[in-house]
Design brief:
With 263 residues, this protein is an alpha/beta fold. 46% of the residues lie in helices and 10% in strands.
């Protein structure tokens, strides 16, 4: 996540409604229309089933309150509107409390194709469909609970597990590689690339993931593939802080990407 942003949080009123304007609604409409064909081709059935359950509006920005109503009925989760940038401590605390922190603004037209910080389209369209699945929801909560118990020095290690599963995880389905993570669902370029057969694909392994560096501003050179969501559910029962301690002893893998240029 970037260290600063030009975007401001959109605050809900007393009823939980966020007053998006017509231009913002149009950005949501156009993002959804662009993304749906790729999602239907390349995303996993668990994501698509969740997207159908949510029945997101096609012509306006989805409201956190209405998405929360569906999530509560399915898994007990809710969506909590937040600013674009929140501390890791608050992020983990919300996940542990079955609350997904959703940046409440939507991107401007000049950032239509790529925005470095997460916006409401990424948060709702990308993340919330899988939070209707109890297995994925339990895994997300487990990362939050581990983060609450972790030292700050462990945050960068633990967040790699989030990155390579919840954001950019892949799953093997019917002999094909399908997208699972929210960063794939909300990005046409990344979803096409991840399922193209060109990047390196590794089997899901918690220690391997914790030791794998990443950059947020490039297409990932490495993705991890799970066999089914039960693997994530099983991982939710692990002692993730013990895994982090073991990963720290073993050290990071050499990165598969060039260092980011300064400037």
């Amino acid at each position: 996540m970037p260290k600063n942003t030009t975007y401001q949080a959109r605050l809900p009123d007393a009823s939980g409604h966020i007053p998006y304007d017509a231009g913002e609604d149009a950005v949501w409409r156009d993002l959804l229309a662009r993304q749906l064909p790729a999602v239907r081709r390349h995303m996993a059935s668990a994501y698509l089933d969740g997207l159908a359950r949510l029945a997101l509006p096609a012509d306006r920005v989805a409201q956190c309150a209405e998405v929360s109503a569906t999530l509560r009925a399915a898994t007990g989760w809710r969506v909590e509107p937040v600013p674009a940038l929140i501390p890791f401590g608050r992020f983990f605390a919300l996940l542990a409390d079955q609350a997904f922190p959703a940046a409440s603004f939507i991107r401007r037209r000049e950032h239509f194709d790529y925005i470095e910080e997460p916006d409401i389209f990424h948060e709702i369209f990308g993340h919330t469909p899988l939070l209707t699945d109890p297995r994925f929801a339990a895994f997300s909560q487990a990362i939050g609970r581990a983060g609450l118990a972790a030292d700050k020095a462990d945050y960068a290690w633990l967040i790699r597990l989030y990155w390579f599963t919840i954001e950019f995880g892949l799953i093997r389905e019917g002999g094909a590689i399908k997208g699972l993570g929210s960063g794939l669902a909300s990005s046409v370029a990344e979803l096409d690339w991840a399922t193209s057969g060109k990047p390196e694909l590794r089997p899901f392994d918690v220690l391997d993931i914790l030791r794998t560096p990443y950059r947020i501003d490039i297409l990932q050179p490495v993705y991890f593939v799970i066999g089914d969501l039960d693997e994530l559910f099983a991982a939710a029962g692990r002692d993730l802080l013990a895994d982090v301690a073991q990963a720290r002893k073993l050290g990071l893998h050499a990165p598969k990407f060039p260092a980011k240029a300064a400037g």
